[in-house]
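Issue: ligand-bound run for adenosine-5'-diphosphate - logging full I/O for the record.

Environment: standard queue, default settings, no custom constraints.

Inputs:
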Amino acid sequence: MTGLEVVLALAVAGLAYALARQLREFARLRRWAARSRLPDAPEARGAWGEVFNLLERHRRSAAGERRRLARLIVRTRRAAQALPYGVTTLDPALRVEWCNAAARAHLGIDPERDRGEPIANFVRQPEFIEYLQRRNPSELLRLRAAGAEARTLSVQLVAFDENAWLLLSHDVTGEERLEAMRRDFVANVSHELRTPLTVLTGFLETIGERKLEPQRVRDYLNLMRPQAERMARLIEDLLALSTLEHAPPPPEARVAVRALLERVRAEAEALSGGRHRIALEISGDADLAGAESELASAFANLVTNAVRYTPEGGEIRIAWRAARAGAEFSVEDTGIGIEPEHIPRLTERFYRVDHGRSRESGGTGLGLAIVKHALARHEAALAIESTPGRGSVFRARFPAARLLPATQKVSG
Ligand code: ADP
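Outputs:
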C-alpha cells in the first residue's frame, strides 16, 4: 500500500467512525423523541450536546407549563365544588357534562353516571321543561324539589361559551321560611292591634253620636282605658323584642341577683294581690355578668306568667341556685300546667295555649319570646317542664363563665 492509500484509508475510516457516531446520536434522539412521556434528554458532547441541552430546556419549560395548567384545572374545579350554588354545565342540547356537589344534592345528578343525560330527566316539573325551552338567561325559576324534605330551589339557565349552558341552582328553603314568618308576623301584629282598636272606635262613635250623661261618658272612658293599655303593652313588647334581636351583645356589667330577685318577687306579690303564696330561695353566692334590664325582663316575665296561670291559693317558688359549674334560675308554680304538645312552641311569637285566658290576664303572647332572646344573649337556655292540672317549672341555666362572686353574701 502506498503512503497515499494509507492516508486515504485512514481518512475513510475516520469519516466512517464520525458518521457512525452521528447516526448513533441521531438514533438516540429518535428513541428519546419517540417516548410518550419525555424523560430527561440524553447526555451528549459537542454539537449534539448543545442540541440535547436546548431540547431539554424546552422539555422542562413545557413540563412546567403543563403542571401549572393541571394545577389551575384542579383549583378551578375545587372552586366550582366549593361554591354554595349548584353548578351544572350542559352541552348545546342541554345534556349534562359536569356538575358540582351542590348541584348533585339539589338535582340528584351523579356527575360520572349521568354524563350525557338530558337535564330534563332530573327535574320533571312541567314548568321546568317550559323554562328550559324559553332559554331566557335573565329569568329565574322557583322549583319545589321532589324528595323526602320539602325544599325550594331557585334555578337559572345561563349561556356561556358558544351555545353551551350553565344551570345554576340555589336552595332558598330558609329564605322562603323567613318570608313566611315575616308575613305571619305582620298578620299577627295587625290582628292583635285591630281588636282593641275596633273596641276603641266603637266607644268613640257611641260617645260622639249621642248626647250622653257625663257619668256614662266616664264609664265608657273607663272601659276604653284597658284597650289602650293593651295596645301600649303590645307595642312595648314588640319594641323590646326588636331591640333584643338587633342590639349588640349585652354589656358584661355586674347584676346583683339577690336584689333583682327581691324586686321581681315584690312585683309578683303586687300582681297576685295576696291570692298566692310566693317564696324566694337563694343558695350559693353568685351574681351574673350581663345587662340588668334584659335579665330583669326575662325573670319578671317568667314570674308574672306563674302568677297569671296559677289559680287562687296556688304556690309559686322562685329560686336561684349557684354552684361552681353554673347557676340556675327557676320558677315553679302549682298552676294550670301545659299539655306536652304545646311546650316546644311556647317561645314562638304570639303562640298561646288558650287565647282567651292569655288576653284576659293581660298577655301579649310575646313574653316567652322575649325571655328566650334575653336568655340566649346571656348564654342561657330555657327549659320547660309541666304537668297539666298540676303546675310548671321554667328553668334558665347559666354557664360558669357568666357568674361573678356575689358582693352581697347569702344570709339564710
Ligand atoms: P302570654 O302573654 O300569652 O302569657 P307568653 O309568651 O308569656 O304569652 O306565654 C305563651 C303561652 O305559654 C301562654 O299563652 C300560656 O298559654 C303558656 N304559659 C306560659 N307560662 C305559663 C305557666 N306558668 N303556666 C301555664 N301556661 C303558661
